[in-house]
Amino acid sequence: xxxxxxxxxxxxxxxxxxxxxxxxxxxxxxxxxxxxxxxxxxxxxxxxxxxxxxxxxxxxxxxxxxxxxxxxxxxxxxxxxxxxxxxxxxxxxxxxxxxxxxxxxxxxxxxxxxxxxxxxxxxxxxxxxxxxxxxxxxxxxxxxxxxxxxxxxxxxxxxxxxxxxxxxxxxxxxxxxxxxxxxxxxxxxxxxxxxxxxxxxxxxxxxxxxxxxxxxxxxxxxxxxxxxxxxxxxxxxxxxxxxxxxxxxxxxxxxxxxxxxxxxxxxxxxxxxxxxxxxxxxxxxxxxxxxxxxxxxxxxxxxxxxxxxxxxxxxxxxxxxxx
Length: 323
Description:
Layout: H1 2-13, E1 20-23, H2 30-60, H3 67-84, H4 87-95, E2 100-102, H5 103-136, H6 141-144, H7 147-163, H8 166-173, E3 182-183, H9 190-195, H10 202-234, H11 240-268, H12 277-301, H13 304-322
Parallel strand pairs: 1-3
Antiparallel strand pairs: 1-2
């Protein structure tokens, strides 16, 4: 009996031999890989430019140093960080023959990808709450949502987002990975990673699913409640033009929120539910690449004050260049 347990220990000690993973990304012909590289490169650049413009405008134009625009600037900066956790490596893999990622780099990507996503699920409710206060409590808004409080709440979102997943990720790194080491995805995701473990880990799977469910559902229903109160207040606005503008804004915001949260629910409420790899990739692309691309258009660049600030900075740039 003692000898048997000793042999098991020796076997398990030699199991964790995987030092790198292969991210298959989108397996297809070389020509299609190059085409995808060009397509996602353009999308990546547009995302950086759009979100970067918002960050710069809010930073440079002191007239819009208000809680709403501080939140938008942080949100745009988060989107820049978010896509940088996945897209550069995905672009590299399109042109790579090996498509490998080291064990450490894979779990670092996992950590930052999930931390950024969690921070976004905290920032979106804060932005919805800010709109609720501005529309439903306009007289008390300046005293409740002061700039120092706004900055503290934003910092809390970032810190909390980065503290949610270190423990689950640590336990996943302690699982034995003895091969195969091929992940049919373009990002190190918990579902495919847990599937590669040599031993089942139902406790880790359940804890990840519960944690994701709590974060997603609590923040989603908070956003839904905030916008419900906003829309109810909008219905009492006497001006038809004002109602249309408010409905358009809230509808656009809810569309983006629904896209982001809907894809998250499909992927992470039950991460090992057996979704086909192709569906996992498409769904992950929607919330990790498509929403950061369209968010500047939805949240900021349609805004009158933001467009005026952009024009002002463009004019100042042209004047400085002419001098």
